Amino acid sequence: MKAWLTVSLVLAVAVCGCSSTGRAPSGGFVPVKSSVLDSVRYDATSQNLVIVFDNGDIYEYHGVPPSVYEGLMTAESKGRYFHENIRDKYQYKKW
Asked: 21 and 51 in contact (C-beta within 8 Å)?
């Protein structure tokens, strides 16, 4: 894992209080196969989706329904799905 990504994930864990267990939606970051996204974390209760991008940027999207998260995780192109269904559609904050 790239050093900057490791630092980003450590910061993400510290900020969100979650662990990198690789289990979703129980709180851990899940690695995804994508040229744009690195890993995601989803909390169905709060409907918050955290995305770690391949460049190390981390964004938290608010009010994302479970169906959108499921669509992302099953999409053949996660980057395309993100751009068409998540980006600019939900309030977010950059970590």
From this structure: no
Give the pTM.
Answer: 0.72
Query: 49-53 long-range contacts, Cβ below 8 Å, gap at least 24?
Result: 49/86, 49/90, 50/12, 50/16, 50/95, 51/82, 51/86, 52/5, 52/8, 52/9, 52/12
What's the rounded Cα separation, in Å, for the pair 53 and 13? 15
Write the Ramachandran bin of 22: left for phi over 0, alpha for psi from -120 to 50, otherwise beta.
left
Q: Is the pLDDT of residue 20 over 70?
A: no
Judge whether residue 24 has pLDDT over 70.
no
